[in-house]
Amino acid sequence: xxxxxxxxxxxRGKIRQVMGQYAPAIADFDAAIALDPKNAELHYLRGLVxxxxxxxxxxxxxxxxxxxxxxxxxxxxxxxxxxxxxxxEHD
Length: 91
Description:
Elements lengths: L5 H13 L3 H14 L4 H13 L3 H14 L4 H13 L5
Helix pairs in contact: 1-2, 2-3, 3-4, 4-5
């Protein structure tokens, strides 16, 4: 599969996320990232699902990786900031 085919996994992952099927959604985003590992948006999307699934550590790691790949990724910056604020880490 080619990197652009990661979009197929993303679409299915988003559908599964909406349906509350977090583990299969994360697996879809894992597959998308395997095809296109330098795509910041994919890491961000997996982070969102991980956060919904209650895996804050993995979500934070995904948001951080998205920011490393794209320092201006507003969604990842906002999500990481919200997670840190919720933990009382305001600095």
